Automatic annotation (TrEMBL):
<dbReference type="Pfam" id="PF03167">
    <property type="entry name" value="UDG"/>
</dbReference>
<dbReference type="InterPro" id="IPR036895">
    <property type="entry name" value="Uracil-DNA_glycosylase-like_sf"/>
</dbReference>
<feature type="domain" description="Uracil-DNA glycosylase-like">
    <location>
        <begin position="35"/>
        <end position="186"/>
    </location>
</feature>
<dbReference type="InterPro" id="IPR026353">
    <property type="entry name" value="Hypoxan-DNA_Glyclase"/>
</dbReference>
<protein>
    <submittedName>
        <fullName>DNA-deoxyinosine glycosylase</fullName>
    </submittedName>
</protein>
<dbReference type="InterPro" id="IPR005122">
    <property type="entry name" value="Uracil-DNA_glycosylase-like"/>
</dbReference>
């Protein structure tokens, strides 16, 4: 069954970390909005954990300078979708599922390098309930946690799913401009349009 709880709450659960070494860390969970997918999804795109902007708006890649949505618009030759409803419709129409490698961690702002106590996402229900044939991780951190924490769960379930690491669309990844990112993301379009 398709799951889309993007509007269930405005904010993720935030609990200040208590130990002294983590004074700047915030405990973040993925409870405010879950995975976006449908039985017709062909690809699953994974970030690491929602950024503060995404947690504020309750949807994926909502920082105004993140290039995720402009990149997807470019590879499908469409205008960039604006707003949560348009972005949800865009992803589902192009058979793209969205989630993260982690559902819980301690993190300082949006700094993936600061992540502590990561808890992996259980991707098995999404993969069992859809036609997803390929996973794409949108950055090194997502790929690392997928490989280290999510992949063993899939292996134990007998799910042999290919994963491709893509460059991050974060504004922090300034070395990659929009045309270069779009070129790197073309395999997402090819996999999403596949009937295999």
């Amino acid at each position: 069954m398709a799951t889309d709880t993007a509007h269930s709450a405005a904010h993720s659960t935030l609990v200040p970390a208590t130990h002294a070494a983590s004074r700047r860390l915030t405990h973040v969970t993925h409870e405010a909005f879950g995975p976006l997918w449908s039985p017709d999804s062909r690809v699953l795109m994974l970030g690491s954990i929602p950024s503060p902007a995404s947690r504020e708006f309750g949807f994926y890649y909502m920082h105004p300078r993140n290039r995720f949505w402009p990149v997807l618009a470019a590879i499908f030759d469409e205008p960039t979708p604006q707003g949560i409803d348009a972005r949800r419709d865009f992803a589902l129409r192009h058979r793209i599922a969205l989630f993260d490698s982690l559902v819980e961690c301690d993190i300082d702002g949006a700094s993936d390098a600061s992540i502590r106590n990561p808890v992996p996402a259980d991707l098995r229900p999404i993969l069992h309930g859809s036609h997803i044939g390929h996973i794409f991780c949108t950055g090194a951190t997502s790929a690392r946690y997928f490989t280290r924490l999510c992949r063993p769960m899939l292996d134990d379930a007998g799910i042999n799913m290919p994963m491709t690491r893509l460059p991050s669309t974060s504004p922090a990844n300034a070395a990659w401009n929009l045309p270069r990112l779009a070129q790197a993301y073309l395999p997402v379009r090819d996999a999403a349009e596949s009937e295999a």
